[in-house]
Amino acid sequence: MTASPAFLGFPDRLDAGAAPCAVIFGAGHGSTYAGRDSSGHALAPGAIRAASQDDAALVGHWDFDLGGPLFGGGPVSCVDTGDIATAMHDNAGNRARIEARTREVLALSAVPILLGGDDSVVIPFLAGFADHGPVWILQIDAHIDWRDAAHGDRHGYSSPMRRASEMVHVAGMVQVGLRSVGSARLGEIEAARRYGSRFVTAREVHAAGVEAALRHIPEGARVVVTLDCDGLDPGIMPGVAARTPGGLTYTQAIDLIAGVGKRARIAGFDLVELLPPADMDGLSALTAARLVVNAVGAIVRQA
Question: Which of 47, 105, 227, 245 could form a disulfide with 112 if both were Cys (CB 3.0 to 4.6 A apart)?
């Protein structure tokens, strides 16, 4: 259990054994590359929770992002169960613990919300849906994350969508916010296209709106939304390892989240790659916290 305050002051369980609609948990490490340090990313769950505290007393107030109070005037129906005990470089153990917690949440018929952590936590998070498929993936990211291996590791933060493509319960993916240059070479682009991944660049969203991405998601599908913080523009999300200009706006990001909830069904949500040591005046953590609020709001409204 994390020592930081719970997200928005949420309880760790509901009264009288009531079932939550969503369960928040954190994981600082997934698979860390040998010789690399991911300790900065491990600070993210606590930073996001801390940034949410100013609004903890306002949960019942009107939220203009959502068109009403977070829980629609009803009781709190989301819990925060704290952080999984992960350790840098305990790669197999970390993945097992993340997948197990995801399965536990899904067994409650609740939507798991994972606060990362670097992007490698996404691999075991998605693996946890093996008995709850088929699912589609909506990835918000500057990069496609299709490396088969990087630095000798097939489960690092360059590979989550490649590993997802190998999961039989993943029916398809839409990758939105893509821009600039990253670890992908021509071979990775070709592999993703052969699989059938739908690429939607940030420029396309700026020109045509979020419908440029949402139209690729089958109506009624179960969707896991995976949000890499560098998918947003660094003007509002500077606390990332790879700042890249031209990213999505906050409004585009929350419209994507809400749009999935209306067109399909959010089955899971993760937010990764926040790097608090690179943040500026807590802006990124605040933006990340608001993105999580919008995810919770969208999940509540689809229940």
Answer: 105
